[in-house]
Amino acid sequence: MAERLQKVMAKAGVASRRKSEGIIQEGRVKVNGQVVTELGTKVKVSDEVMVDGLPINKEEPVYFLLYKPRRIISSASDEKKRKTVLDFFPDVEERIYPVGRLDYDTSGLILLTNDGELDNRLTHPKYEVDKTYVAKVEGIPTNDELKQLRLGVVIHGKKTSPAKTNVLETDKKKKKAVVQITIHEGKNHEVKNMFKAIGHPVEKLKRESYAFLNLRGLQPGDYRPLKKFEVDKLYEITEKK
């Protein structure tokens, strides 16, 4: 049975399906010795697929949950040689990569896998997977200001999807507040931009949960493999759209 080339690459842990499409279009993929740039190309199990001159391996899928510390890059590599999330997995032989990203100075839950199909589902906007953050912000937001977040605010000309908010702490002397916010979008600096839009810049940010997953029992820098039922549930919640 033949499958689309980008799907085969994603299954092999090369990159997500969307990123694999870019790799194909850049002319970096050969099938049976021939460069392929057509996205509709289908390949069989017997076909030899090479990316950047190296044959892809059909790895078993693996899944990890990492408590990312602050000042760590959420990518497979960094041109400035800064520490990345992959540095916490020196003994993992599979070619894993982060699902989405967390800002350099944001801590919290991030998933890593070599399953391109699940990565595609979790990062595609249509699946609307909830992500909950705790933000320490300047000033104390009023209910009317938080209502703006719940209704959606305009950032770079586009309105954000409605968020859920909950004030956890306030410090009137220091004029600070800690606010929990749940969103399902994954745009760059999304939470920071949302609080900035209502006049309360973020000083510190942590992602506490991703869908039903949380950081319970982990310290910054710790990770654990996902259990089979957790992987199955992630597939289940992204099956409904």
Automatic annotation (TrEMBL):
The keyword Metal-binding does not apply. The keyword Cell wall biogenesis/degradation does not apply. GO terms for biological process: enzyme-directed rRNA pseudouridine synthesis. Keywords: Isomerase, RNA-binding. Its EC number is 5.4.99.-. One of its GO terms (molecular function) is rRNA pseudouridine synthase activity. It comes from the Bacteria. PROSITE patterns: PSI_RSU, S4. It holds the Pfam family S4. One of its GO terms (cellular component) is cytosol. InterPro entries: PsdUridine_s_RsuA/RluB/E/F_cat, PsdUridine_synth_cat_dom_sf, PsdUridine_synth_RsuA/RluA, PsdUridine_synth_RsuA/RluB/E/F, PsdUridine_synth_RsuA/RluB_CS, RsuA_PseudoU_synthase, S4_RNA-bd, S4_RNA-bd_sf. Residues 3-60 form the RNA-binding S4 domain. NCBIfam families: pseudouridine synthase. Belongs to the pseudouridine synthase RsuA family. This is Pseudouridine synthase. It comes from Apilactobacillus bombintestini.
